[in-house]
Amino acid sequence: MHPFSYTKAADIDGALDGGRRGGRYIAGGTTLVDLMRENVERPGELIDIGALPLHDITGTAGGGLRIGALVSMAAAAAHPKVRAAFPVVAQALELSASPQLRNMATIGGNIMQRTRCTYFRDVTAACNKRRPGSGCAALDGFNRSHAILGASDQCAATHPSDVAVAFAALEAGVHLLGPDGERSLPFADFLLPPGSTPHQEQALRPGELITAVEIPAHPQPLKSGYLKVRDRQSYEFALTSAAVALHVRGGVIRAAKIAAGGVGTVPWKLPAVERHLIGERPSESLWAAAAERAADGARPLRHNGFKTELLKRTVARQLRIVGGTK
């Protein structure tokens, strides 16, 4: 591990001062510290923001939720407002990492975590995320776990967060604070696909920190849930996953919010599936037909072609679980 300085911010202004100096924000540290140990990340200064007043979960007008960036994954998953209004978020969190890590890791840190691509974490391998212009060893290497949606000729690494898939489905927003003041971004604009700049993973400006993730109000009743398919039952990243939220009134689907994980370079919204559902009555045939659109635009690599069919089956199964049949 390379030498670094450490500062514990006592307040927001102190944290932003550190950000202006180029310091890296750290809270739970469950991802950044690992990458520092492996010499993948080499920050010169860490700014501990754990004491900042960003630990609350509050309701918003109409039934939305604002989750502070420093709320732990475990606390968010257990919160009664989260569980009652958006079980898809609670389930995604509970299917992430281990209980010990969920107690430490924060919501802001979770959506900021970097890919689990083995080539990214191997400092001897070519990786455009780690060293721009060096190439992507995954494209011609072993790429079973990599993306079939959103990849470029520069990078095919998947985003590892489960709760980010739920936030994408629910069309959440990310609140930011930096030297130039406050702003917010739609979740879809916060995480960036690789394109020609895979090292630019979030739409953060220099010195900005995440203050909260806000889930907007949705029509009620809203049924939701998260399904994760992986090689083993615990402490494993998704091969595919599906976050589904449905508003059914009068026996007809009035709103559908769906996203997939494990298959995209960012959490992948599935608008074609959503459109197929709107105005229809729940049925086995509807779930199957809608799920056929889940892999639209997929470009499998040598070893991950199985994800195309697995994604369709994952989406169909979760539509059935959340929406039921008649």
TrEMBL record:
Keywords: Oxidoreductase. Pfam families: CO_deh_flav_C (PF03450), FAD_binding_5 (PF00941). Its EC number is 1.17.1.4. It is an enzyme of class 1 (oxidoreductase). InterPro entries: CO_DH_flav_C, CO_DH_flav_C_dom_sf, Diverse_Substr_Oxidored, FAD-bd_PCMH, FAD-bd_PCMH-like_sf, FAD-bd_PCMH_sub1, FAD-bd_PCMH_sub2, Mopterin_DH_FAD-bd. Residues 1-220 form the FAD-binding PCMH-type domain. GO terms for molecular function: FAD binding; xanthine dehydrogenase activity. The keyword Oxidoreductase applies. This is Xanthine dehydrogenase YagS FAD-binding subunit. It comes from Nonomuraea jabiensis. The lineage of its organism: Bacteria, Bacillati, Actinomycetota, Actinomycetes, Streptosporangiales.
